[in-house]
């Protein structure tokens, strides 16, 4: 796996995609509690909007 100065990772020339993904995942430490909290904060509004749309669509379909 190649990693550039900005942290972007790309496969080595000729590296199998599955091998690249496995190497990338293995190189990433587990998320910290703070990272999990930040991700929840970021995605909570998106999930709430998706749930609202699903309820609205279900109500429309029932009518």
Could you describe the 3D structure shown?
The structure is a single chain. This protein has helices at residues 17-27, 33-62, and strands at residues 2-3, 9-10. The chain has a two-stranded antiparallel ribbon with strand order 1-2. The radius of gyration is 19 Å and the shape is elongated. With 63 residues, the protein is mainly α. The chain contains two helices and two strands, in the order ββαα. It starts with a strand and ends with a helix.
Average pLDDT number: 88
SS class: mainly alpha
Radius of gyration: 19 Å
> How much beta, percentage-wise?
5-15%
For the largest beta sheet, what order do the strands appear in spatially? 1-2
How many strand units?
Answer: 2
Give me the number of helical elements: 2
Largest sheet: 2 strands, antiparallel
Distance between the termini: 54 Å
Percentage of residues in helical conformation? 55-70%
Helix-strand pattern: EEHH
Give the overall shape, derived from the CA principal axes: elongated
Could you list the spans in which at least 5 consecutive residues all have pLDDT below 50?
Answer: none
């Amino acid at each position: 796996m190649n990693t550039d100065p900005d942290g972007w990772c790309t496969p080595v020339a000729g590296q199998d995609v599955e091998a690249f993904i496995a190497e990338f995942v293995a190189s990433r430490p587990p998320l910290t509690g703070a990272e999990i909290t930040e991700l929840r904060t970021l995605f909570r509004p998106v999930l709430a909007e998706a749930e609202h749309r699903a309820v609205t669509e279900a109500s429309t379909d029932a009518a």
